[in-house]
Amino acid sequence: MYQELTLSDSDARLAIEIIRSETEKRGKSAVIAVADCRGELIGLLRMDGAAFSSVNVATNKAFTAARLRRPSSLIGKNAKHPETGFNVAYYSDPRYIGFSGGLPVIVKGQTVGSIAVSGLTEAEDEELAELAIKAILAANPS
Fold this sequence. Notes:
Structural class: alpha+beta
Shape: globular
CATH architecture: 2-Layer Sandwich
Number of domains: 1
Radius of gyration: 14 Å
CATH topology: Beta-Lactamase
Order of helices and strands: HEEHHEEH
CATH superfamily: Haem-degrading domain
Largest sheet: 4 strands, antiparallel
Strand order of the largest sheet: 2-1-4-3
Strand content: 15-25%
Distance between the termini: 22 Å
């Protein structure tokens, strides 16, 4: 029998709160998405003032990072760096997206979910997602 590990709703709440708090400290707003091991949403927050378009972008970043078990940005590098990226057209699913800001959460070599941020710079989106991943891993020592 095969068992999968996946992020829980408490992991999602922790990630959202960590990112929300840090984004607020910076005087900014964003959309935060947390997905399970299959890329399906567990939690989503559109902070006050965040662009409505960032909802789908954050959701799709989280989906991409979990499903492909790698940062969403790797798909986007295809046009510039074919050796490191992937062509989205071959996936035939519009949920795959190549923007930075979606990161997989990996535990013991297994992708257990993903965290994504949208609405800030690409560097800030990834930095905040990484901050939340560190908090989740610290809260769940194995």
